[in-house]
Amino acid sequence: MKLAARDAARFLAKPDPAVAGVLLYGVDAMRVALKRAALVEALTGPQGAAEMRLERMTGADLRREPSAVVDALKATGFFAGRRAVLVEETGDAAAPTLKAALEDWRPGDAALVVTAGDLKPASALRKLFEAAKSAVAIGVYSDPPGRDEIEATLAAAGLARPDREAFAAVEALAQTLDPGDFAQFAIKLGLYKRGDAAPLTAADVEACAPPAGEAGLEAIVAIAADGEAAPLAVAFRQLSGSPTSLTIAAGRYFRTLHAAAVAADGVDAGLARARPPVYGPKRTRMAAQARALGPARLETALGLIVDAELTLRSSRPVPAAAVAERLLLRLAMLPRGRD
Fold first, then answer.
1. What stretch of H or E contains 138?
2. What are the φ/ψ torsions at residue 85 (nearest 5 degrees)?
3. For the whole model, what pTM was predicted?
4. What average pLDDT does this structure show over 184-205?
5. Which of the residues 110, 111, 199, 277 could staple to 83 if both were Cys, CB 3.0 to 4.6 A apart?
6. At 316, is the secondary structure helix, strand, or coil?
7. Residue 200: beta bridge partners?
8. Beta-sheet pairing, 54-58 with 135-139
9. How far apart (Å, rounded) are the C-alpha atoms in residues 224 and 324?
10. Among the three residues 81, 105, 139, which one is the final residue of a domain in this structure?
């Protein structure tokens, strides 16, 4: 069975004991590893490895000894609790062996967790887990985490009561940080708030947030294009790129939006011609932004960006960071709606 993103988040947090096996696959090895770690902990508990209730092997191990996975699933542990067998670095060659293991699985056996790289729809391994009644397949994509996933990450760090502004700030960071950095940030934030019964605030988030690198420039600009002023203060203060780099990123982003908004054949067609290409959730988001702002307001935005660039490049001394932050806020405060 193939799980959608929302169902996958719930399953990873609380796996169904009737499910024999789970396949996690995706192009980003870090994202797959984080999902795998969360799933294994949910299955065996935080002490599963220490109590020898977790057996690890690779696809290469299965090629050398195909019966090893069935033996591991059937084995009895020394400690009470659910067991798991983790098979990593797996490819389509392992599909027949894993098919036999799933067919031989019975309640009380260890749970089978399999990880793989990017698998196409025609992949034998992916087809096996999607078709099996006792197994699930979860694609791990490079989209920013959704609200449910962010809430689960905060809850795991002991942060279950963020106020609205704090959550917006965390959500903004989730869009700018890679998954590993975001997970470390949540752990740091949990330690920072340990013993503090007050709800999480944006100030707490700002105190613990890591600097955003150059890759975070566009993500911060995208928050402004959404019209979200509240998270910008936190996101901007973590920026390690120069104010001039930010205005360049803003110009590039808003020019793409403007080109889409004025395209004679529609916003989607305009984005399809963008260079570099715009794909997936980013394309959906930019299309919504282009429609909400419209050509006239996007022209106003481009004027604001040019003014900020000229100010930053002038010969007279200027508060560069303040100029860039003011630009972001003015972009975020542009009215939205149909022209």
1. strand 135-139
2. -115, 120
3. 0.57
4. 86
5. 110
6. coil
7. 162
8. unpaired
9. 12
10. 139
